[in-house]
Amino acid sequence: MDDFDNLLRANPAPAPQTRLLWEAVVTCLPKQDLGIGPYGERFIVPITGGLFRGAPGFETLSGTVLSGGADRQLLRADGVKELEAIYEMQVDDGTVLHIENRVTIDDPTPNGRYALSHLRITAPKGRWDWLNRRVFVGSMNSLPPAEVR
Questions:
Q1: What's the CA gap between 42 and 65, in Å, rounded?
Q2: One Pfam family this chain carries (predicted)?
Q3: pLDDT tens digits, residue range 76-116?
Q4: Do 82 and 101 contact (CB within 8 A), yes or no?
Q5: 29: which of 11, 113, 141, 144 is 20 to 30 A away, CA to CA?
Q6: Is the preceding peptide bond at 108 cis, omega within 30 degrees of 0?
């Protein structure tokens, strides 16, 4: 065990670091019930559009969320909600990014709402293709429809 501890001390693992890339407001139609399946209650939420803007240092990564995507939801028996949102975002320069966003929501927890995701971004070759080579995590807030207007 001493060798193991010495090896870890001599080669510390780098701590993951995060940096905000963008913020978005996405508009959706009301949730549609798809019935109960073997893993829980299923729903779909059609995505109708939205806007996103790059965070400081990424200001040119801004544009619109395109309509036509959807958020597939599973409400598990333990109350946890799993979301799989698939949609496109069009950067102001015309580039279309394909987004796959998997979200886990545990609401409420003793420490408040837990809503974190991991995203896979597919970008065409060019200015934004570096997005294909990174790991992205996200957070999410749901706004009541009246607040989005």
A1: 24
A2: DUF3237
A3: 999 999 999 999 999 999 999 999 999 999 987 788 889 99
A4: no
A5: 113
A6: yes
Contact between 118 and 104 (Cβ < 8 Å): no
CA–CA separation, 75 and 40 (whole Å): 6
Instruction: Domain count for the chain, please give it.
Output: 1
For residue 104, what are the domain limits? 21-148
**E strands along 92-125, which residues?**
96-109, 112-122
Q: Is residue 11 part of a domain?
A: no
What CATH number does the domain containing 123 carry?
2.40.160.20
Answer whether residue 140 is part of any domain: yes
Return the residue matching tokens 């109350």: 79
Cis bond before residue 110 (omega within 30° of 0): no
pTM of the model: 0.87
Query: Does residue 118 belong to any structural domain of this protein?
Result: yes
Say if 73 falls within a structural domain: yes
